[in-house]
């Protein structure tokens, strides 16, 4: 049965802190490991990731429904890899509209076509289009399956107070929570503020975001219709049906199409949302006889900004509460989901006593770097799409005309450079290469996928990487030699549990060797793509973080080097 996620409403339930007998008894108030504020995609992803790693979570939200309208619709391959790890990626792909190809037009002429995933051998497409309420709905249903996530609706944070000495076990945060039954105090060791661009927690703490607001307005029209447009991203500069402005067209599930119309700064946002203004614009694009219905309309002005620091004591900001970008390039929701995956494993390690509180400082530094990269690219896209001077307009139009015939000009064309994960090459958690490697899988990069076989069945490499520290050994066409087998056994004694994956190009390991490597996951690199993408020679060993980022690699496995790299990746004292 199909669920209408736009009409769902969730009941408010009193919580244990509001029990009058408990309050009168003077019982010591519980301190939860993590409180997540905000049940959007970022808050839900954070809560699920923590719960999967054994950390109990209280998730509070001031509303009792999912997002209104389609909002964020473009979710990248990296986000899909994360959703796979959270247990709901397949649902996203099954419902979403997969696409890899985009087209750029000047007036009514095709300038060029690009493919964001030109090579085969990837489990997920470059992007799917899926309305945000579906993403939230699928994540919520996954969260509801987990016994260590408690969700509290109609619970608005009205006060924030930090207690204890920062960086110590006695540090905690007390939230004052407004409910239909009145206020109560909620205490947590850490608080994740995923409460959106207007972040009440940020405001309560007297913090702000700084950046640039662009003087332009855009109209979003979600149009329900049956159309024969291909499943591609189409972007027009100065089209005849909307002269001197730009238009973006995307397909969504349920025969819904997203159309973005640039309006200009002088446009009246209230007037432009009226059907009398929207319908003629849509009809100019689709033709006078087109049949369609308006499903959702919004007018927005966008900014590129961020908080100076994403960590303030035991309060950590993630998603739109920490940073904001223009919608060109699908960087908002995707970067927020990547915030969640970066933060969750670090919180889990700290709470489980496997890392010091200082590890959380690297959440801030790594994701601040990623936010700066997103803001830089988003600002460049906005400047190209909406030139700020006559000279800029002449330059842009010249680039577009050259791009019809000259590939170099296509590199300068910017209709919204689409989201890619940040390469955290300067992270203090990385162990720099001591030997020569080629390719993109440098320390700090997020892992790429490749087809493999597991137990003689088709599988994907990323299905076996992540959630905990993982060691990946590439052994080529040979079986694991005795020396490497001994080294692998030594890794099993590490204080930090390490999942082992052995990737072979040859036939499946012998029964005797498979028994010796019983604690390892054995994969067959059927097409050689895993070895090629990781520049792997026989004996190459990768150490992968729980969030599927490379943190170290070697040409030969050395247990002492791996142990040192593990400590470095956890900010253990004496390994800098």
- Which stretches are low in confidence, meaning pLDDT under 50 for 5 or more residues running? none
CATH superfamily annotation of the largest domain: FAD/NAD(P)-binding domain
What is the number of domains?
Answer: 3
Q: Which architecture of the largest domain per CATH?
A: 3-Layer(bba) Sandwich
Find the count of extended strands (DSSP E, 2+ residues): 28
Strand % is: 25-35%
CATH fold naming of the largest domain: FAD/NAD(P)-binding domain
Largest sheet: 8 strands, mixed
Radius of gyration over all CA atoms, rounded: 25 Å
Output the structural class: alpha+beta
The percent range for helix content is 25-40%
Name of the CATH first level of the largest domain: Alpha Beta
User: Can you give the mean pLDDT?
Assistant: 91
Query: Helix count, per DSSP?
Result: 16
> How far apart lie the N and C ends?
55 Å
- How would you sum up the global shape? globular
List keywords for this structure.
alpha+beta; 576 residues; 3 domains; 7-stranded mixed sheet; FAD/NAD(P)-binding domain; Glutaredoxin; Alpha-Beta Plaits
Q: What's the SSE blueprint?
A:
Elements lengths: L19 H6 L5 E7 L3 H12 L4 E4 L13 E3 H10 L2 H7 L1 E3 L1 E6 L2 E7 L11 E3 L2 H13 L4 E4 L3 E8 L8 E8 L2 E12 L6 H5 L4 E5 L4 E7 L8 E5 L8 E7 L3 E7 L6 H4 L2 H12 L6 E8 L2 E5 L3 E2 L2 E3 L5 E2 L7 H20 L7 H27 L4 H14 L3 H4 L40 E4 L2 E4 L9 E5 L7 H10 L7 E6 L6 H6 L3 E5 L4 H5 L7 E4 L5 E5 L4 H11 L7
Parallel strand pairs: 1-2, 1-11, 2-8, 5-14, 11-20, 24-25, 25-26
Antiparallel strand pairs: 3-7, 4-7, 5-6, 9-10, 10-11, 12-18, 13-16, 13-17, 14-15, 15-16, 18-21, 19-20, 22-23, 22-26, 24-27, 27-28
């Amino acid at each position: 049965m199909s669920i209408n996620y736009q009409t769902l409403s969730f009941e408010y339930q009193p919580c244990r802190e509001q029990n009058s007998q408990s309050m009168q008894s003077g019982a010591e108030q519980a301190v939860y490991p993590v409180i997540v504020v905000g049940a959007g995609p970022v808050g839900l992803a954070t809560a699920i990731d923590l719960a999967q790693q054994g950390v109990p979570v209280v998730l509070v939200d001031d509303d009792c429904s999912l997002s209104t309208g389609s909002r964020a619709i473009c979710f990248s391959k990296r986000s899909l890899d994360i959703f796979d790890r959270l247990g709901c990626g397949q649902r996203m792909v099954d419902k979403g509209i997969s696409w890899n190809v985009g087209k750029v037009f000047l007036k009514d002429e095709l300038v060029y076509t690009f493919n964001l995933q030109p090579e085969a051998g990837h489990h997920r497409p470059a992007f799917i289009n899926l309305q945000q309420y579906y993403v939230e709905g699928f994540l919520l249903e996954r969260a509801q399956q987990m016994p260590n996530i408690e969700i509290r609706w109609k619970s608005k944070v009205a006060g924030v107070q930090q207690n204890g000495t920062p960086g110590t076990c006695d540090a905690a945060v007390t939230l004052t929570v407004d409910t239909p039954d009145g206020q109560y105090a909620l205490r947590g060791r850490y608080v994740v503020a995923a409460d959106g661009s207007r972040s009440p927690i940020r405001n309560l703490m007297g913090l702000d975001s700084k950046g640039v607001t662009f003087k332009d307005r855009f109209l979003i029209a979600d149009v329900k219709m049956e159309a024969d447009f291909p499943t591609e991203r189409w972007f027009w500069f100065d089209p005849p049906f909307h002269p001197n402005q730009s238009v973006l067209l995307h397909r969504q599930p349920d025969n819904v199409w997203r159309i973005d119309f640039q309006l200009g700064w002088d446009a009246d946002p209230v007037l432009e949302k009226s059907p009398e203004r929207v319908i003629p614009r849509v009809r100019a694009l689709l033709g006078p006889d087109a049949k369609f219905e308006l499903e959702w309309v919004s007018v927005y002005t966008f900014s590129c900004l961020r908080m100076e620091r994403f960590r303030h004591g035991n309060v950590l900001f993630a998603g739109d509460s920490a940073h904001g970008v223009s919608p060109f390039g699908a960087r908002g929701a995707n970067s927020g989901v990547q915030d969640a995956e970066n933060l969750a494993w670090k919180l889990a390690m700290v709470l489980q006593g496997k890392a010091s509180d200082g590890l959380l400082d690297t959440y801030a530094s790594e994701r601040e770097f990623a936010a700066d990269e997103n803001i830089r690219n988003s600002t460049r896209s906005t400047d190209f799409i909406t030139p700020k001077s006559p000279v800029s307009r002449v330059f842009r139009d010249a680039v577009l005309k050259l791009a019809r015939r000259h590939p170099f000009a296509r590199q300068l064309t910017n209709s919204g450079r689409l989201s890619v994960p940040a390469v955290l090459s300067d992270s203090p958690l990385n162990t720099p290469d001591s030997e020569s490697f080629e390719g993109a899988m440098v320390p700090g990069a997020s892992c790429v996928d490749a087809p493999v076989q597991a137990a003689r069945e088709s599988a994907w490499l990323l299905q076996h990487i992540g959630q905990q520290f993982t060691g990946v050994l590439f052994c080529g066409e040979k079986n694991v030699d005795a020396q490497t087998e001994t080294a692998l056994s030594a890794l099993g004694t590490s204080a930090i549990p390490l999942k082992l994956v052995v990737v072979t190009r040859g036939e499946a390991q012998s029964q005797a060797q498979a028994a010796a490597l019983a604690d390892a996951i054995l994969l067959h690199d059927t097409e050689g793509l895993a070895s090629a993408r990781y520049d792997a020679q026989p004996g190459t060993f990768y150490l992968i973080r729980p969030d599927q980022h490379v943190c170290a690699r070697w040409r030969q496995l050395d247990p002492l080097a791996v142990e040192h790299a593990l400590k470095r990746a956890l900010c253990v004292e004496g390994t800098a």
